[in-house]
Amino acid sequence: MIKEIFRDIVNNTFEGIIIIGEDYRIQYINRFAEEITGFSHKEAENKFCYEVLRAKLCKDACPIKTVKKGKNLGEIIVNIIAKDNKEKFIKTKVIGTHGYWVEIFHDVTREVELEKRIREKYIFEDIITQDKGLIEILNQFPKIAATTVPVLFEGESGAGKEVFATAIQTLSMRKDKPFVKINCASLPDTLLESELFGYKKGAFTDARKDKPGLFLTANQ
Q: In terms of DSSP bridges, do strands 87-97 and 76-81 run parallel, antiparallel, or are they unpaired?
């Protein structure tokens, strides 16, 4: 009876839930997790969790291994590859309980993609302010953009640092060159090296082709 009640609760929650054993094999996957990953419970059961989620950090910075070491990850945003090979973004957290690991997540792909589109459209003319101090700073942007010096913006989260950086990019001679953005704080230290410097085919199990690092991608 308890098992039936538990199954009904888990299947009617609005979050994806995957229960993983100590051997990293999936024991249970609920209805929302099926919808997000594209894998049915029958297809996912007894498979390694990384075979279903296929996230970048699965092999190099497994959240379960990180939590096992006593680190508190909290909620993190992870890009996974669904069954149809489309990239999705999930906000997830891992909980250890009674010898199992429970991964709870929901799909934030729409929010992430929308945020990307919004940020990419910001240009210098979009910044509107009546603050005299900020106007004085903005007046320096064309001069800064004309140079090749590195620029550092500091401020609290949500202050608009990336908007200002994008504005300088659109004013510069490099406006048609790649402007690569990365949130280093969201990357585990074990992934940072491969993201920044890339890797060669065969460097590890899932490295099926060469991947240029962000430094190379942002060349010029």
A: antiparallel
Instruction: Decide if 50 contacts 60 (C-beta within 8 A).
Output: no
> Do 165 and 190 sit in the same domain of this protein?
no
Q: Which domain holds residue 140?
A: 122-171
pLDDT at 120 (0 to 100): 59
Other CB atoms within a 10 A radius of the CB of residue 111 amount to: 12
On whether residue 12 sits in a domain, the answer given is: yes
Nearest to 106 by CA among 33, 56, 9, 26: 33
Strand, coil or helix: 155 = coil
Is there a contact between 52 and 45 (Cβ–Cβ < 8 Å)?
no
Q: How far is CA 184 from CA 7, 48, 191, 196, 214, in A?
A: 38, 28, 10, 10, 12
Confirm whether 196 is domain-assigned.
yes
The pLDDT tens digits for 144-195 are 888 888 899 998 887 888 888 888 888 888 887 888 888 877 777 777 888 8
Beta bridge partner(s), residue 164: none
- How high is the mean pLDDT of the chain? 83
Query: Which pairing describes strands 16-20 and 26-29: parallel, antiparallel, or unpaired?
Result: antiparallel
pLDDT of residue 23: 92
Whether 25 shows a pLDDT value over 80: the answer reads yes
Count of helix runs (H) and strand runs (E) in the chain:
12, 7
Cβ–Cβ under 8 Å, residues 95 and 104: yes
Q: What is the domain count for the chain? A: 3
Q: Which residues contact 21 (CB under 8 A, 6 or more apart)?
A: 27, 99, 100, 101
